Amino acid sequence: MNSLISQLQARVQTIRDEEALYVEVNFEKRAEAIDVLEFHILDTIEGLFQKEYQNEDMKLLKVQVDLLKEKLENIDKKLFLRLHEELRKSTDKKLIFRQIIFDYLEDCIGKIGQSVKIGYDNFDVFVNNLLPAFNGINPEAIITGEPEMVFYQKTPARIVFEMGELIGTESKDVFFDLGSGLGQVVILLYLLTGITAKGVEFEPEYFDYANKCALQFNLSNVEFINEDARNLDYSEATIFFLYTPFKGKMLQDMMNGLQKVAKKKSIRIFTYGPCSIQVARQDWLQCTTGNANDLYQLCGFQSLPY
């Protein structure tokens, strides 16, 4: 037991002595340190407490870990309050948002495009704190969806960033997120690229929430539509995104609708998750990015000419 406490004390001291953690710009290093404190050291201590293995040294260590974790978290709180206000007041939100991302998420950006077998990472932690509307309690759905509708999950932020890099910042495209949920993809994509971005969401509570999030930042080229995605006119759309909002026949019906759009003009479709496999089977699309069999990759498709 004393040996374990000594090991934990040494790990805490190493974190405490790392001066880089107290420099505001080193968000990723700080996030990793907080993760170690919370999910390794504190969890170990709590597990020992539950087994009634506790003494004064262990109690003191827990207090020290709690204080160190709070100190690091307070650096982030001040950081995000400042960045949030800068973004809110900016007249060029695309410029300031991209600058923030590149300044604070260098390691995460270096991994963009890789197949990462983890849903969320420090990119999401950063975005959730910068845009606090996406870090709160999600509204409860009030509509019982059709059996082939898939329950809402947030798209990993790194996937949106990768998609934004493929679209580019000078694009004149019009982007539609089909099954936009709480609006995070639409808002992030707009902030990254500046293009017109729209979300289609069937659940009215999610739709209302997304609208409120967009209003917080006065995003003029962002729009949310409360409608069944299969029933809309997509004549202005050029890019679509689906994070597996539905499956089976419902998904195929949606693809049939998009095929009609593709007969009149060239379109691009981005997918993430299980729906990529079914989208890849469409004979009117060519896969240009990613591997449809890898559920953790962003896939891009281009419509073939008619």
Task: Record the SSE blueprint.
Elements: H1 2-17, H2 27-50, H3 56-89, H4 93-104, H5 106-110, H6 122-130, H7 157-167, E1 174-178, H8 184-193, E2 196-201, H9 204-216, E3 222-226, E4 239-242, H10 248-262, E5 268-271, H11 275-280, E6 285-289, E7 299-303
Parallel strand pairs: 1-2, 1-4, 2-3, 4-5
Antiparallel strand pairs: 5-7, 6-7
Helix pairs in contact: 1-3, 2-3, 3-4, 4-8, 7-8
Describe the structure.
- The protein starts with a helix and ends with a strand.
- Helix 7 (157-167) packs across helix 8 (184-193).
- The protein has a seven-stranded mixed sheet with strand order 3-2-1-4-5-7-6.
- It folds into two domains: 2-89; 122-303, Rossmann fold (3-Layer(aba) Sandwich).
- By secondary structure, it is α/β, with parallel strands linked by helices.
- The model has no long low-confidence stretch (mean pLDDT 92).
- It is built from eleven helices and seven strands.
- The radius of gyration is 22 Å and the shape is elongated.
- 51% of the residues lie in helices and 11% in strands.
